[in-house]
Amino acid sequence: MIRKNPNGDYPQIDNTAYIDPTTVIIGKVRIGKNVFVGPQAVIRADEPNSSITIKDNCNIQDRAIIHALEGTSVLIEENTSLTRGCIIHGPCKISRNCFIGFGSVVFNAEVGKDVIITHLVVVEGVNILPERVVRSSQLINSVAGVRELNGVDKKLKEFTEKIVKANLDLAKRYKNE
């Protein structure tokens, strides 16, 4: 379902994006080139003066939720993976080449480029520096917690690049059905 919000803002979706028919996209949402949006994802910019931008080559997987509070925005930059069941809640910025793992929540945060947030993580009210990894089940909600994060290793970086490529291929294959 793709529809306008109560203010009359209608999503703008590039024609190269694949949007699963079970996806819900509402309001002032911009989706870039070659984006894959999987089954039952919800992308809502329906509160007043809210917006969501998803840039090129991202993948928004099954049951991912992206929502922006009134007067806030969510920005998802290029080549980013939002995996199954994660929640991204504005105000929020996820920089390019990031990976947000299964069931993780990111709220009121800024995530630097090349950050990997693994599974069942909560990130709230902080800025994460580029090229850091947040390990499964961590709560990162303080400067002290951010300082303790390790750098991303080669194996994890290659894994996230593989996920982006696989979902770009999926988007193309679905578009050509």
Strand content: 35-45%
Note the run of SSEs as H and E. Answer: EEEEEEEEEEEEEEEEEEEEHEH
Question: Please, what is the oligomeric state?
Answer: single chain
Rg, rounded, reads: 15 Å
The rounded distance between the terminal residues' Cα atoms is 20 Å
Main sheet properties: 13 strands, parallel
- Name the CATH architecture: 3 Solenoid
Roughly what is the average pLDDT, rounded to an integer? 96
Shape: globular
- Determine and state the CATH class: Mainly Beta
**Number of beta-strand segments:** 21
- Uncertain segments are none
CATH third-level topology:
UDP N-Acetylglucosamine Acyltransferase, domain 1
* Number of structurally distinct domains: 1
Relative helix content: 10-25%
Tally the helices.
2
In CATH terms, the superfamily is: Hexapeptide repeat proteins
Structural class: alpha/beta
